[in-house]
Design goal:
Blueprint: H1 2-15, H2 21-28, H3 32-44, E1 49-52, E2 58-61, H4 74-86, H5 93-104, H6 128-142, E3 144-151, E4 157-170, E5 173-180, E6 185-190, E7 194-203, H7 216-221, E8 227-233, H8 238-244, E9 250-252, E10 258-264, H9 268-275, E11 281-285, H10 287-308
Helix pairs in contact: 1-5, 2-3, 4-5
Length: 309
């Protein structure tokens, strides 16, 4: 839209000391003639634009001209920029770059140093999750149905046709809220478990029923029994525990060990996570969880001991 381009031109001139018509034409992917007309429009609107002819000429704003910057403080502007840059891997890079430049122009050059960087993709995740997120985001907006293979927490392989509605990033993971055609209900899917993602030609319309404000734990817990779990974690595993468990669920003992009380459904993820503490973990409650971890540990010992005898 023209109004968006006009605002962007002002922000560009605020950020740069001087910029030529050809540079702006390349930036906005339009003609120099269009830029000249836009400059004239801005001048008629009272924007004090200075035109300097010659090889080193260009357009700039009269010294002292600023847009209203009181909406955001400097730290708020920097936080916005950091978040936007983190989304470059999700959205179209060109669109994010232009948005970053618009927001950046609201702060001065001396405030532009970044001391915060955000990356929404973890170490070693490669392109799989990034690829899925980009496709899902694009087709949420296009309202295209998708088909994919999915592995749930019970290691069951599923094939689903769904209507993608919303992406969530929470707890270092991406989640997709979608209407599952198989279950005829809203479901949360962890993006890292989505394989063979395919975009279908079929378009969908938003359903009239209210879309609930789903959260990942709703999908994980509401259909399974949640149990109270009481753990003792020795000092050697305390740093890891503090990274995951909320401080509200932790009591620190005098010797540096921790008592952790949480509520989770006993499932594959819980078993594997607790086993990762190794010798540092004692399950105080419930008995059935402790027995299951013992069974799995003994099975591991049996299968591997014969290889070392």
């Amino acid at each position: 839209m023209k109004i968006d381009r006009l605002l962007s031109m002002i922000l560009l001139m605020l950020k740069k000391n001087k910029i030529t018509a050809s540079e702006m034409a390349a930036y906005f992917e339009t003609s120099s003639r269009t830029i000249y007309r836009d400059i004239e429009t801005l001048c008629l609107a009272g924007i004090p634009i200075v035109s300097e002819p010659g090889v080193h000429g260009g357009y700039s704003l009269m010294e002292g001209f600023t847009l209203e910057k009181q909406v955001f403080k400097v730290d708020e502007i920097l936080a916005l920029i950091a978040g936007l840059k983190g989304l470059e891997a999700v959205f179209e890079p060109a669109a994010v770059r232009k948005t970053v430049e618009k927001v950046s122009s609201l702060g001065s050059q001396k405030d532009s140093r970044q001391n915060l960087e955000i990356d929404f993709f973890g170490w070693g995740e490669g392109n799989h999750i990034r690829h899925n997120v980009q496709i899902l985001y694009k087709n949420i907006n296009r309202k295209k149905c998708i088909r994919f293979d999915y592995t749930n927490l019970n290691n069951e392989g599923l094939n689903r046709i769904s209507e993608p509605l919303k992406l969530f990033f929470r707890g270092n993971n991406w989640y997709l809220l979608a209407f599952c055609r198989t279950r005829e209900d809203y479901r949360f899917f962890r993006v890292s478990r989505i394989l063979n993602l395919e975009v279908l030609e079929e378009e969908f319309s938003l359903r009239e029923d209210h879309i609930p404000e789903w959260r990942p734990e709703h999908n994980l817990h509401d259909r399974r029994k949640v149990e109270s779990i009481h753990l003792h974690i020795a000092n050697g595993g305390s740093a890891k525990a503090r990274e995951y468990f909320s401080s509200d669920n932790i009591i620190e003992n005098v010797d540096g060990s921790l008592e952790v009380k949480v509520s989770y459904p006993p499932d594959e993820w819980v078993y594997s996570y607790l086993l990762s503490y190794g010798e540092h973990l004692t399950v105080l409650h419930p008995d059935n969880l402790r027995s299951e971890l013992i069974r799995r540990s003994e099975s591991f010992i049996r299968k591997n001991k014969s290889l070392t005898d």
